[in-house]
């Protein structure tokens, strides 16, 4: 009996990278899996292919599992509704969505075109809306549903050249949180994950020197796609029933829990603020707690290793 025995899981972006590994691991844990992948390029420029999704489905079936494939785009709401119907017609239901489908259009913001912005927002933000909206009523009605959305440190911390991607990923974190809040009474859970893994997205970053090439070689070995995929599968399993509304990270064998925005300083002036007093009093009071423009580390220093209980 696996962690997902008897469950049906939709995995988007399941033809490559984290999605592929999530589909394989979910199946190994007993789930019936609908593998969705448009089969397009990293930039979302071509028409796509049914091949990648079907190859993963075939691999699952060859290993004795149950899987079907779908090559529609998560950007099309009717197509996503079709995925839900396909899962129900083929496997008799749907209980969880793992949604890593994504593209990149990296460019400095002052050179970013409308198309660069729209394509990334469409796949990440609109795609997350589509898979959630197409499934949420079913999950609420059956009092059983779990989402794993994908955010990114490019949004949580910021990353030069990724204004479109970072904005979408921060939006996904907000979406996941509110779905978790609204779904709590109906046993609908939602979490999001900021993964660090060696996928075609990380491979797309230009190599500038030998040191960067050496770091890539280490990443390929130590920071694999199966690691965040395994965490994603665990979080949509019934055994994780008490976990919802969280932002997690996964980097190698590090599992990270991120803080969420909360007030850290409040300045009050009973008689009211003026422009001058804001500049002379409020800003200096808050300044010691300002965040600089450097990228934050992916996790707290010197984390304690997990121990078996």
Strand and helix layout:
Blueprint: E1 8-11, H1 17-28, E2 32-36, H2 51-62, E3 66-70, H3 77-91, E4 96-99, H4 114-141, E5 145-150, H5 153-156, H6 163-183, E6 188-196, H7 200-203, H8 210-222, H9 226-235, E7 247-251, E8 254-257, H10 275-286
Parallel strand pairs: 1-2, 1-4, 2-3, 4-5, 5-6, 6-7
Antiparallel strand pairs: 7-8
Structure description:
The structure is a single chain. By secondary structure, the protein is α/β, with parallel strands linked by helices. The C terminus is likely disordered. The chain is built from 10 helices and 8 strands. The protein has a single domain, classed as NAD(P)-binding Rossmann-like Domain (Rossmann fold), CATH 3.40.50.720. Helix 2 links the parallel strand 2 and strand 3.
**Average pLDDT rating:** 91
What general form does the structure show? globular
Distance between the termini: 22 Å
Counted beta strands:
8
For the record, the CATH architecture stands as: 3-Layer(aba) Sandwich
Number of helices: 10
How many separate domains make up the residues? 1
* Strand order of the biggest β-sheet: 3-2-1-4-5-6-7-8
Structure summarized in a few sentences:
By secondary structure, this protein is of the alpha/beta class. It has a single domain, classed as NAD(P)-binding Rossmann-like Domain (Rossmann fold).
Note the main attributes of this structure.
309 residues; alpha/beta; 8-stranded mixed β-sheet; 10 helices; 8 strands
């Amino acid at each position: 009996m696996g962690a997902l025995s008897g469950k049906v899981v939709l995995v988007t972006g399941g033809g490559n990278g984290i999605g592929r590994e999530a589909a394989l691991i979910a199946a190994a844990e007993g789930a019936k899996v609908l593998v969705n992948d448009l089969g397009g390029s990293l930039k979302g420029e071509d028409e796509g292919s049914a091949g990648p999704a079907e190859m993963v489905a075939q691999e699952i079936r060859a290993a004795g599992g149950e899987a079907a494939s779908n090559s529609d785009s998560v950007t099309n709401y009717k197509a996503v509704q079709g995925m839900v119907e396909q899962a129900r017609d083929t496997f008799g239901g749907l209980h969880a969505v793992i949604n890593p489908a994504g593209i990149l259009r990296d460019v400095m913001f002052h050179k970013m075109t409308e198309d660069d912005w729209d394509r990334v927002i469409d796949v990440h933000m609109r795609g997350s809306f589509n898979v959630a909206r197409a499934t949420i009523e079913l999950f609420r009605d059956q009092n059983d549903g779990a989402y794993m959305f994908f955010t990114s440190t490019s949004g949580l911390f910021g990353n030069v050249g990724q204004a479109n991607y970072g904005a979408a990923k921060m939006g996904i974190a907000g979406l996941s949180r509110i779905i978790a809040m609204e779904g709590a009474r109906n046993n609908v859970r939602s979490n999001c994950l900021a993964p660090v893994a060696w996928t075609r997205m990380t491979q797309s970053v230009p190599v500038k020197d030998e040191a960067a090439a050496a770091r890539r070689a280490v990443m390929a070995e130590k920071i694999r796609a199966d690691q965040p995929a395994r965490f994603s599968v665990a979080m949509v399993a019934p055994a994780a029933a008490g976990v919802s509304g969280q932002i997690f990270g996964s980097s190698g064998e590090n599992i990270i829990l991120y803080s969420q925005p909360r007030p850290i300083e409040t300045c009050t002036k009973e008689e009211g603020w003026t422009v001058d007093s804001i500049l002379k009093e409020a800003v200096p009071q808050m300044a010691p707690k300002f965040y600089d423009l450097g990228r934050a580390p992916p996790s707290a220093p010197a984390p304690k290793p997990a121990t078996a209980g």
